[in-house]
Design a protein that fits this description.
mainly alpha
């Protein structure tokens, strides 16, 4: 399920969507907020240009919206079922959880977005090695 060559491998391990070798984000720790959202310009292994066109990652906002809606619904269900909070009271845990998970959802939305458009190519690493 998390084997190299799957989209989940690229998403969960912060890897290039084409070669699954190079890192996508510069910083591995997503909670170092001053560097958490910095991406490499190109893959260090296969040379894939991550910003394929100007404003490419604006589409990641739609993915981020979906992730935050899912997180909000899950938090609402947990707060009402397990903690018996009312509708109004459950907004406080939702806001807290969304603030805490913002770095995670932003990073995941970008890598999910690029994985929608780039297919894994096992020959991509060999192509870059042959060029050098």
């Amino acid at each position: 399920m998390f084997k190299k060559g799957t989209k989940l491998y690229s998403i969960l391990f912060n890897k290039c969507p084409r070669c699954h070798e190079g890192d996508f984000m510069k910083e591995k720790n997503m909670f170092k907020l001053n560097k958490a959202f910095q991406m490499h310009d190109h893959c260090s292994v296969c040379g894939l240009k991550y910003m394929m066109e100007p404003s490419f990652f604006y589409g990641a906002m739609y993915v981020n919206y979906g992730l935050t809606v899912g997180i909000s619904i899950a938090t609402f269900i947990i707060s009402t079922l397990f903690f018996n909070l009312s509708l109004t009271e459950s907004f406080i845990p939702i806001v807290i959880v969304l603030i805490l998970t913002a770095p995670i959802s932003i990073r995941f939305s970008r890598i999910i977005w690029i994985n929608l458009f780039v297919k894994y190519d096992p020959k991509a690493t060999k192509t870059k090695e042959n060029e050098q």
